[in-house]
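Batch manifest line 250
LIGAND: adenosine-5'-diphosphate
JOB: complex structure
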Amino acid sequence: MTFENVVKKFGDLTVLNDLNFQVERGQRVTLIGPSGSGKTTILRLVMTLEELTGGYIHVDGVPLTHLERGGKRVARRHKDVAQLTRRIGMVFQQFNLFPNMTVIENIIEAPVHVLGKSKEEARARGKELLEQVGLGDKADQHPSRLSGGQQQRVAIARALAMDPEILLLDEVTSALDPELVGDVLNVLRDLAETTDITMLIVTHEMQFAQDVSDRVLMFDSGHIIEDAQPDVMFSNPTHERTKEFLRAVL
Ligand code: ADP
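JOB STATUS: finished
ARTIFACT:
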């Protein structure tokens, strides 16, 4: 995944200004930095939930959005882009489960309607994934009957049901009571150990970031100010701004 001269503005506010970086296949990259520095915006751009103001994001050479010659944006998604975004999963801070569906219905919705899997096949895979996240007995419950941590593990299973090559994790434990955070992070640690899914992670859980990341990017005001392996970033950062940030959060 390549970010090339990425610019994102909301009205007059420039959130990302000429951002360039690359994430290799299978890499786990954590974005850290102060609130408002543009981390979530990056994930939302990859998920095509936001439009680029300028520049490109490529996945395997396919640009996620296109700029027409002269800079005018093509409004409709390119067919390749639709194909591409199926391979990208996202888990949100607020779970975003469908409240009127059971857990298993939440999980099979996209595999059935987007990938065209049969209900039986999607259900069987969904049950496996529920076992994997420790919720094998919750398939027929509604999300409102589950704790926040359980709902978030369902959201992870739902993302995995699409067999994503890229998983975007946006502060997935920030809305949880502290005692529920551990189970969610353990599911993600297992996933990092047992799969080669590329992960782009925004988190305030620095120990988790240290455990699972191959690389940590420190953002400030929409710029990457430091790009390092986690042991270096967390124990011996170069930039004064990084030191200050880590002193405040560690
Ligand atoms: P972070 O994840 O680092 O906390 P965000 O990417 O969420 O930062 O936000 C970066 C900046 O963009 C913030 O100033 C935020 O208020 C602004 N922003 C994000 N989304 C929108 C939006 N839809 N409309 C206007 N401003 C937005």
